[in-house]
Protein backbone atom coordinates (compact mmCIF):
# COMPACT_ATOMS: atom_id res chain seq x y z
CA UNK A 1 0.00 0.00 0.00
CA UNK A 2 2.85 2.40 0.88
CA UNK A 3 4.46 1.71 -2.51
CA UNK A 4 1.18 2.34 -4.33
CA UNK A 5 0.85 5.65 -2.47
CA UNK A 6 4.41 6.70 -3.26
CA UNK A 7 4.07 6.02 -6.98
CA UNK A 8 0.55 7.44 -7.42
CA UNK A 9 -0.07 9.78 -10.34
CA UNK A 10 -1.55 13.02 -8.93
CA UNK A 11 -3.23 16.28 -9.96
CA UNK A 12 -5.36 18.96 -8.28
CA UNK A 13 -8.50 17.17 -7.14
CA UNK A 14 -10.34 20.40 -6.26
CA UNK A 15 -10.42 20.94 -10.04
CA UNK A 16 -11.22 17.26 -10.69
CA UNK A 17 -7.75 16.78 -12.18
CA UNK A 18 -6.32 14.01 -10.03
CA UNK A 19 -6.36 10.84 -12.18
CA UNK A 20 -6.01 8.48 -9.22
CA UNK A 21 -8.91 10.08 -7.32
CA UNK A 22 -10.97 10.01 -10.53
CA UNK A 23 -10.18 6.32 -11.02
CA UNK A 24 -11.18 5.56 -7.41
CA UNK A 25 -14.46 7.46 -7.70
CA UNK A 26 -15.33 5.67 -10.96
CA UNK A 27 -14.46 2.29 -9.50
CA UNK A 28 -16.53 2.90 -6.35
CA UNK A 29 -19.55 4.13 -8.31
CA UNK A 30 -19.47 0.91 -10.28
CA UNK A 31 -18.85 -1.28 -7.20
CA UNK A 32 -21.77 0.40 -5.42
CA UNK A 33 -24.15 0.41 -8.39
CA UNK A 34 -24.55 4.20 -8.17
CA UNK A 35 -24.13 6.88 -10.86
CA UNK A 36 -21.24 8.71 -9.22
CA UNK A 37 -18.98 8.84 -6.14
CA UNK A 38 -16.88 11.39 -4.25
CA UNK A 39 -13.69 10.89 -2.21
CA UNK A 40 -13.88 12.66 1.18
CA UNK A 41 -11.44 12.87 4.12
CA UNK A 42 -13.52 11.06 6.77
CA UNK A 43 -16.69 9.10 7.42
CA UNK A 44 -17.98 11.90 9.64
CA UNK A 45 -17.60 14.41 6.82
CA UNK A 46 -19.14 11.96 4.34
CA UNK A 47 -22.24 11.60 6.50
CA UNK A 48 -22.53 15.35 7.12
CA UNK A 49 -22.13 16.15 3.41
CA UNK A 50 -24.76 13.53 2.54
CA UNK A 51 -27.27 14.85 5.09
CA UNK A 52 -26.63 18.44 3.94
CA UNK A 53 -27.07 17.42 0.31
CA UNK A 54 -30.41 15.74 0.97
CA UNK A 55 -31.58 18.50 3.36
CA UNK A 56 -30.73 21.70 1.51
CA UNK A 57 -32.91 23.95 3.72
CA UNK A 58 -32.29 24.46 7.41
CA UNK A 59 -35.06 23.17 9.69
CA UNK A 60 -35.71 19.87 7.89
CA UNK A 61 -35.81 16.65 9.87
CA UNK A 62 -33.87 13.38 9.60
CA UNK A 63 -34.98 10.15 11.30
CA UNK A 64 -32.15 8.06 12.72
CA UNK A 65 -31.44 5.38 15.30
CA UNK A 66 -30.64 6.24 18.95
CA UNK A 67 -27.51 4.08 18.54
CA UNK A 68 -26.42 5.56 15.23
CA UNK A 69 -22.92 6.98 14.82
CA UNK A 70 -24.42 10.11 13.24
CA UNK A 71 -26.48 10.75 16.39
CA UNK A 72 -24.02 9.67 19.09
CA UNK A 73 -20.52 10.21 17.76
CA UNK A 74 -20.54 13.09 15.30
CA UNK A 75 -21.04 15.91 17.80
CA UNK A 76 -24.57 16.50 16.50
CA UNK A 77 -23.00 17.93 13.35
CA UNK A 78 -26.20 17.59 11.36
CA UNK A 79 -27.87 19.99 13.82
CA UNK A 80 -24.85 22.05 14.79
CA UNK A 81 -23.66 22.73 11.27
CA UNK A 82 -26.57 21.94 8.96
CA UNK A 83 -29.63 22.97 11.03
CA UNK A 84 -31.18 19.52 10.57
CA UNK A 85 -33.37 18.21 13.39
CA UNK A 86 -32.50 14.66 14.53
CA UNK A 87 -35.61 12.60 15.28
CA UNK A 88 -34.39 9.42 16.94
CA UNK A 89 -36.00 5.97 17.08
CA UNK A 90 -34.71 3.32 19.44
CA UNK A 91 -32.64 0.66 17.68
CA UNK A 92 -33.69 -2.94 18.28
CA UNK A 93 -30.86 -5.25 19.46
CA UNK A 94 -30.38 -6.41 15.84
CA UNK A 95 -29.77 -2.80 14.69
CA UNK A 96 -33.15 -2.37 12.96
CA UNK A 97 -35.99 -0.16 14.12
CA UNK A 98 -39.73 -0.72 13.89
CA UNK A 99 -41.26 0.39 10.63
CA UNK A 100 -44.42 1.50 12.48
CA UNK A 101 -42.33 3.80 14.66
CA UNK A 102 -40.86 5.38 11.53
CA UNK A 103 -44.37 5.88 10.14
CA UNK A 104 -45.46 7.58 13.39
CA UNK A 105 -42.49 9.93 13.25
CA UNK A 106 -42.76 11.13 9.66
CA UNK A 107 -44.09 14.68 9.45
CA UNK A 108 -45.17 15.91 6.06
CA UNK A 109 -48.04 18.18 7.06
CA UNK A 110 -48.21 21.89 6.23
CA UNK A 111 -49.06 22.63 9.87
CA UNK A 112 -46.45 25.32 10.69
CA UNK A 113 -45.80 23.81 14.14
CA UNK A 114 -43.79 20.99 12.59
CA UNK A 115 -40.64 20.58 10.56
CA UNK A 116 -40.84 18.55 7.34
CA UNK A 117 -39.24 15.10 7.52
CA UNK A 118 -36.89 14.70 4.56
CA UNK A 119 -34.49 11.86 5.31
CA UNK A 120 -34.08 8.46 7.02
CA UNK A 121 -30.52 7.43 7.98
CA UNK A 122 -29.56 3.78 8.45
CA UNK A 123 -26.23 2.28 9.55
CA UNK A 124 -24.88 -1.02 8.21
CA UNK A 125 -23.05 -2.60 9.90
CA UNK A 126 -24.62 -1.09 13.03
CA UNK A 127 -21.60 -0.32 15.19
CA UNK A 128 -23.13 0.35 18.61
CA UNK A 129 -25.42 -2.70 18.35
CA UNK A 130 -22.29 -4.86 18.25
CA UNK A 131 -21.51 -4.58 14.55
CA UNK A 132 -24.83 -6.14 13.49
CA UNK A 133 -25.53 -6.61 9.79
CA UNK A 134 -28.98 -5.22 8.94
CA UNK A 135 -31.34 -7.75 7.35
CA UNK A 136 -31.88 -6.94 3.68
CA UNK A 137 -35.67 -7.19 4.20
CA UNK A 138 -35.48 -4.30 6.72
CA UNK A 139 -33.56 -2.12 4.28
CA UNK A 140 -36.06 -2.96 1.56
CA UNK A 141 -39.02 -2.10 3.82
CA UNK A 142 -37.51 1.25 4.88
CA UNK A 143 -36.69 2.15 1.29
CA UNK A 144 -40.19 1.14 0.15
CA UNK A 145 -41.79 3.38 2.77
CA UNK A 146 -39.44 6.29 2.03
CA UNK A 147 -39.99 6.06 -1.73
CA UNK A 148 -43.75 5.97 -1.26
CA UNK A 149 -43.62 9.20 0.79
CA UNK A 150 -40.96 11.02 -1.23
CA UNK A 151 -38.28 10.76 1.49
CA UNK A 152 -34.61 9.93 0.90
CA UNK A 153 -32.56 7.20 2.60
CA UNK A 154 -28.85 7.62 3.47
CA UNK A 155 -26.73 4.72 4.66
CA UNK A 156 -23.80 5.24 7.01
CA UNK A 157 -21.92 2.30 5.55
CA UNK A 158 -18.59 2.91 7.29
CA UNK A 159 -18.23 -0.89 7.31
CA UNK A 160 -20.41 -1.61 4.29
CA UNK A 161 -17.84 -4.03 2.88
CA UNK A 162 -18.03 -6.10 6.07
CA UNK A 163 -21.83 -6.21 5.73
CA UNK A 164 -21.50 -7.30 2.09
CA UNK A 165 -18.91 -9.94 3.04
CA UNK A 166 -21.10 -11.28 5.86
CA UNK A 167 -24.15 -11.48 3.56
CA UNK A 168 -22.03 -12.79 0.67
CA UNK A 169 -23.50 -10.22 -1.73
CA UNK A 170 -21.90 -7.37 -3.71
CA UNK A 171 -22.27 -3.96 -1.98
CA UNK A 172 -24.48 -2.80 -4.87
CA UNK A 173 -27.09 -5.33 -3.72
CA UNK A 174 -27.32 -3.61 -0.30
CA UNK A 175 -27.21 -0.13 -1.82
CA UNK A 176 -30.20 -0.85 -4.06
CA UNK A 177 -32.24 0.20 -1.04
CA UNK A 178 -30.67 3.61 -0.36
CA UNK A 179 -30.30 6.91 -2.21
CA UNK A 180 -26.81 7.61 -0.90
CA UNK A 181 -24.12 5.90 1.15
CA UNK A 182 -20.81 6.64 2.83
CA UNK A 183 -18.07 4.03 3.26
CA UNK A 184 -14.72 4.25 5.10
CA UNK A 185 -11.42 3.01 3.71
CA UNK A 186 -9.80 3.84 7.04
CA UNK A 187 -11.56 1.13 9.08
CA UNK A 188 -11.16 -2.58 8.30
CA UNK A 189 -9.85 -1.75 4.83
CA UNK A 190 -6.46 -0.74 6.27
CA UNK A 191 -6.04 2.72 4.71
CA UNK A 192 -4.58 5.64 6.68
CA UNK A 193 -7.22 8.15 5.52
CA UNK A 194 -10.29 8.40 3.34
CA UNK A 195 -13.96 7.69 2.80
CA UNK A 196 -16.24 7.68 -0.21
CA UNK A 197 -19.83 8.75 -0.72
CA UNK A 198 -22.01 7.60 -3.60
CA UNK A 199 -25.34 8.54 -5.15
CA UNK A 200 -26.87 10.02 -8.28
CA UNK A 201 -24.87 12.39 -10.50
CA UNK A 202 -26.79 15.50 -9.30
CA UNK A 203 -26.34 14.36 -5.67
CA UNK A 204 -22.56 14.05 -6.10
CA UNK A 205 -22.35 17.36 -7.99
CA UNK A 206 -23.95 19.15 -5.03
CA UNK A 207 -21.97 17.04 -2.52
CA UNK A 208 -18.75 18.27 -4.16
CA UNK A 209 -19.76 21.88 -3.47
CA UNK A 210 -20.59 20.98 0.15
CA UNK A 211 -17.27 19.17 0.57
CA UNK A 212 -15.49 22.40 -0.41
CA UNK A 213 -17.68 24.45 1.94
CA UNK A 214 -16.68 22.18 4.85
CA UNK A 215 -12.98 22.42 3.99
CA UNK A 216 -12.78 18.89 2.62
CA UNK A 217 -11.50 19.80 -0.85
CA UNK A 218 -8.06 18.18 -1.12
CA UNK A 219 -5.36 18.88 -3.68
CA UNK A 220 -2.93 16.06 -4.66
CA UNK A 221 -5.18 13.53 -2.94
CA UNK A 222 -4.11 10.76 -5.31
CA UNK A 223 -1.59 9.53 -2.72
CA UNK A 224 -4.57 8.73 -0.49
CA UNK A 225 -6.81 7.42 -3.27
CA UNK A 226 -4.00 5.04 -4.29
CA UNK A 227 -4.21 3.44 -0.84
CA UNK A 228 -7.98 3.07 -1.26
CA UNK A 229 -7.56 1.51 -4.72
CA UNK A 230 -5.00 -0.89 -3.25
CA UNK A 231 -7.49 -1.87 -0.56
CA UNK A 232 -10.22 -2.58 -3.14
CA UNK A 233 -7.91 -4.93 -5.03
CA UNK A 234 -6.04 -6.51 -2.11
CA UNK A 235 -7.88 -6.10 1.20
CA UNK A 236 -11.57 -6.45 0.29
CA UNK A 237 -11.06 -9.89 -1.33
CA UNK A 238 -9.67 -11.18 1.97
CA UNK A 239 -12.19 -9.63 4.36
CA UNK A 240 -13.82 -13.04 4.86
CA UNK A 241 -10.57 -14.14 6.57
CA UNK A 242 -10.86 -11.19 8.99
CA UNK A 243 -14.40 -12.37 9.74
CA UNK A 244 -13.16 -15.90 10.44
CA UNK A 245 -10.52 -14.46 12.81
CA UNK A 246 -13.14 -12.30 14.55
CA UNK A 247 -15.35 -15.37 15.06
CA UNK A 248 -12.39 -17.28 16.53
CA UNK A 249 -11.62 -14.40 18.90
CA UNK A 250 -15.29 -14.16 19.91
CA UNK A 251 -15.34 -17.88 20.71
CA UNK A 252 -11.96 -17.72 22.46
CA UNK A 253 -10.33 -20.21 20.04
CA UNK A 254 -6.81 -20.05 18.67
C1 LIG B 1 -20.53 3.64 11.85
C2 LIG B 1 -19.54 4.74 11.72
N1 LIG B 1 -19.82 5.79 10.93
C3 LIG B 1 -18.96 6.81 10.77
C4 LIG B 1 -17.74 6.81 11.39
C5 LIG B 1 -16.85 8.02 11.23
O1 LIG B 1 -15.69 7.79 10.55
P1 LIG B 1 -14.42 8.78 10.70
O2 LIG B 1 -13.72 8.36 11.94
O3 LIG B 1 -13.65 8.51 9.45
O4 LIG B 1 -14.93 10.16 10.76
C6 LIG B 1 -17.39 5.74 12.22
C7 LIG B 1 -16.10 5.73 12.93
O5 LIG B 1 -15.78 4.86 13.70
C8 LIG B 1 -18.30 4.67 12.39
O6 LIG B 1 -18.05 3.63 13.19
From TrEMBL:
Protein family per UniProt: Belongs to the threonine aldolase family.
Keywords: Pyridoxal phosphate
Protein name: Aromatic amino acid beta-eliminating lyase/threonine aldolase domain-containing protein
UniProt cofactor(s): pyridoxal 5'-phosphate
Organism of derivation: Tegillarca granosa
Highest taxon listed in the record's lineage: Eukaryota
Ranges for domain Aromatic amino acid beta-eliminating lyase/threonine aldolase: 1-251
